[in-house]
Amino acid sequence: MQLEILLGKLELQLEFAEMRLGSAKIRVEEFADSIMIETVQETILESCKTVARAAGMKQGYLDAISFEKNGFLKGDVINDYSKPSKDALGSVVPLADYFEDGTVTHFIEPLDPDGVLAFPIQSGAITVTGFSKGHWVKGIRAMKIMSNGFKFGLERFLDVLTSKINRFLQENSIQ
Fold first, then answer.
1. Is 66 buried (19+), middle (13-18) or exposed (0-12) by CB count in 10 A?
2. Secondary structure of the chain: what % helix, strand, coil (to 5)?
3. pTM for the model
4. Residue 175: its pLDDT value, please?
5. Over the chain (175 residues), what is each successive 10-residue block's mean pLDDT?
6. How many Å from the N-terminal Cα to the C-terminal Cα in the chain?
7. How far apart are CA 65 and CA 73, in angstroms?
8. Phi, psi of 82, rounded to the nearest 5 degrees
9. Whole-angstrom Cα distance, residue 102 to residue 139?
10. H/E stretch holding 137
């Protein structure tokens, strides 16, 4: 009789263990999804910001680096650093894209009603204002800040995420 009770309890424990194992994948995925934003911020975004600082980017560029979660275990690392254009359409100049991919040599023409560009010219410790009715600019060298930051941060992201998942599994193991 005593053996039957013990075998019954063992059978219940095995059924419980089987249910827990069956739901383990779902529980791990839900846990990973719940810590995804935090983990991306402390790894990939920090890496992108470190690369940006090393490239001499200003705070506005750093502040525009972010992560947008757009689904279960999905999201995008983005940089939407831009400024409004003064053209008639009121479009936005995607500066982050220009720094990432570079630009070709191009002509800049005045957009204000006076038809004149004004820009600072640095000569040693003296800054004077230059004027132009339009001029050619060399373009921006592709810096690949976001690509490199993502690449450098991805391995750390995977390591940190794996570590957090392993800790979660240990804390929630079948006793």
1. middle
2. 55, 20, 25
3. 0.73
4. 45
5. 65 68 82 96 98 96 97 95 70 88 85 75 87 83 96 96 92 67
6. 26
7. 19
8. -155, 175
9. 7
10. strand 135-137
